[in-house]
Amino acid sequence: MNWSDFFHSSSFSILLVGSFVAASCALLGCFLVLRRMVLLGDALSHSVLPGIAIAFLLTGSLASFPMIIGAGTFGVLTVVLVQLLNRSGRLGEDASIGVVFPAFFALGVLIISRYARDVDLDIDCVLFGEIAYTPLDIWVLGGVELPRAAWVMGGILVFNVLLVTLLYKELKVTSFDPALAAALGLSPLVVHYILMSAVSVTVVGSFQSVGAILVVAMLVVPAATAFLLTRRLRQMLGLAVVLGVLSAWSGYAMAYALDCSIAGGMATSAGGFFSLAFLFAPRRGVVARAHAYRRLRVELSGQLLLLHLRAGGDATDRAASAHRFAWRARDLRRAVRPLLASGLVEQVGDGLRLTPRGERALQEQGTAPLAHRES
Amino acid sequence: MQWLFEWNSTLRNVLVGSAILGVVGGVMGSFALLRRQSLLGDALAHAALPGVCIAFLLTGSKAPSGLFLGALVAGVLGALFVLIIVRGSRVKEDSAIGIVLSVFFGIGIVLLTYIQNLPLGSQSGLDTYLFGQAATLLREDIRVMAIVGAIVLVLVGLCFKEFKLLAFDREFGASVGFPMRGLEVLLTVLLVVVVVIGLRTVGVILMVATLITPAAAARQWARSLGSMALLAGAIGGVCGAAGALLSAGVPHLPTGPTIVLFSSAILAVSIILAPGRGVVWSWLRARRLTDRVRRENLLKDIYRIGEAANDWEAAVSLERLQSARGQAGQGGPARATVARTAQALERSAQVERLTGGWRLTADGVESAERVVRKHRLWELFLTRRLDLPSDHVHRDAEAMEHTLTDEDVLELERTLGNPSVDPHGRPIPPARRDPDADQGPETGRGPGAPIPEEGAN
User: Testing the interface with B: which of A21, A39, A262, A284 to mutate, by most B Cβ within 10 A?
Assistant: First the structure.
């Protein structure tokens, strides 16, 4: 297959749309993760449904623009309602989200199943999207022939990049320190609404190609993965975009191999990347921390042993040492091995003895490790 | 009732199933709501999907018991993953819920579409778990739901006190020796159980509403956890039954969404109308407060104008009263507002209307003195006790004069050593009546509260 064929293949279209969705969502998702508003993003991805349904009923078409308007309206309505309920003190934030979005979603399902049964506005489609069909709907703009979804999502991606670039400082300050932002004269509420409107628009654009659930996955998972890997916002944004695109590609490969839902595959592989980061992230990952913990334990036991040997004089019996600290044989071996290797102790028959080098090392380190134990 | 059972067995199944789910969901939702874990239910519902698919792949049948077990295991696993992610990394709970929800669901969709593409005969129907299809409930499903629901309710009843502790004061519970961790696990497992029995009826996405919406509505009316849980169960049950009936009667009306819209409507009504908490209620309360503040301010203004001119008989004009509160449009009241307030005072015989304006009656003087007294005592308290400069205390006193009770004021007066002048050198009106005998208008003039021999009039 040559390149020209590839660019006209459906795989290319799907990968392109998937990458656009992933990148658009990942950018905004970082701020949702940092602001602890992930679940509001989740709610938006469901509650825009009646907007889409009503736009469809009014215009009778699946054109993108009216749908974005309709869905954007319901998106903002959701954010406002959640805010009102929460602010009024009658419901907590989680409950406000939990009652608003199912109500809107139910309304959307009802409208679709009552009035739009015969059309191609399938609820399944809304939920998991049909990215596989995107290559069938081509738009030609300026001589470039691309799927319509690619144009729409490309536009949304440009919009999101612009938003994050232009409002970078505002988004950053309001995310990390709302009080400072308010003191600086930046309204956290205005930034909140701008961000949530952008999320609504992104959700709607993505909806048509990848469905509600993948949108949630793409909003949250790459951003949370990047959050595990770095502590700098710029790096987090970049990493999230890269991880999102990688999830899209590997998810497509998986779906291709298993002959299953592409959107589902992308969500699954995003989850795979998160698990990898959770387990293997440098310094903070589960494995790295377990390893660091073990090393610390060995180091501490080694020091205890050195002090014990010095107090005990010549050739302290191994078994007695282990007994002293209630160590099992394995713990003792673990503690002794590095000490022998670095020549701090030496083997004398069945016992251990401090070498002059070990003596010096102890002097340098002090007796701190044992101090609290014997006091 | 006989007609119902003979009528249509499908409808009966749907009706009973939805009602059972509503009751159990409402009760369990109350706990989730109070523990601020509303959206955990959402994640659990989504997480159950791959369990259903794997159970189907393993057993090769759609027997509800197998799928039920699969969903249960996956749901519990989902809850566990949320916990592991929050404990094991710096990812916060909302992100963890979002991750579990979307990734589990993604895996579920992968498996579902994989199953649908398998060359098997019996695979169709698993997608009823997505949106729920109450109409597919069979007699056996209803029996399972009834038994499981009853077990859940009995367990909640048995552990009610413990769950209450968990919801309100986990630390106290732990300190008096309850196994709070174990109770937490039990409550979460029960939540998963309810979610799982609800999947077939309302589906993955709307399950959260079955839990939270009736509980949120009940929260507006109830004053205790017990009554809240009972009410939530009742609301859930009624909505379930009503939604099932309506969707059976009207074509193309899916059951799950109808139930959810019913309970959402009840929630909306509750938030607006519930006594004590509702929007209307607090609006009325705020209005009553505003009206009282306006009346008290007006009485005080007339009093102070009279005091300044040392002429208690003269009528004070509307313009004068209006300007005493600042310019209209710049924080001052509108002319109509002042006039309305004055009319209200006239009705309660606190002021009387003369040609050029209003004048305080004997009753009015008494009320006005009470307000002025609170105001000036508070000013004095601020300057003496908090060392605030005397030009900084007026605004605070403007607010406090409407909130201090008569007892507060007596206490304040005692603390300050029965002063007679405020920081600005104006007299503090002494107490007229014993606040303990506040019932009758003319009784109980206490010995410690001398009456000035000449009234203001």
Answer: A39
Instruction: Answer whether A215's CB lies under 8 Å from A207's CB.
Output: yes
Q: CB distance from A203 to chain B under 8 Å? A: no
Q: Which two tokens stand for residue B50?
A: 């791959």
The length of chain B, given as a count of residues: 457
Give per-residue pLDDT as tens, A65-101. Answer: 787 888 888 988 999 999 999 988 888 888 999 999 9
**CA nearest to A212 within chain B:** B102
- pLDDT tens-place string over residues B49-104: 899 889 988 887 777 778 888 999 999 999 999 999 998 888 999 999 999 999 99
Report how far residue B368's alpha carbon sits from residue B297's, in angstroms, rounded to the nearest whole number. 8
Using CA atoms, how far apart are residues A225 and A238, in angstroms rounded to an integer? 12
8 Å CB contact of B130 and A124: yes
Residues of A in contact with B273 (CB under 8 A): none
Candidates B97, B212, B253; nearest CB to A39: B97
- B216 in Cβ contact with B26 (< 8 Å): no
Note whether A91 contacts B: Cβ–Cβ < 8 A.
yes
- Percentage, residues of chain A above pLDDT 70: 86
The 3-state DSSP class for residue B275 equals: coil
SS3 assignment, position A189? helix
Helix crossing, A329-341 with A286-312: angle to 10°? 80
- The encoded tokens of residue A275 equal 């698990």
* pLDDT of amino acid B454: 40
The model's pTM: 0.81
State how far the Cα of B232 lies from the Cα of B212, in Å rounded to an integer: 9
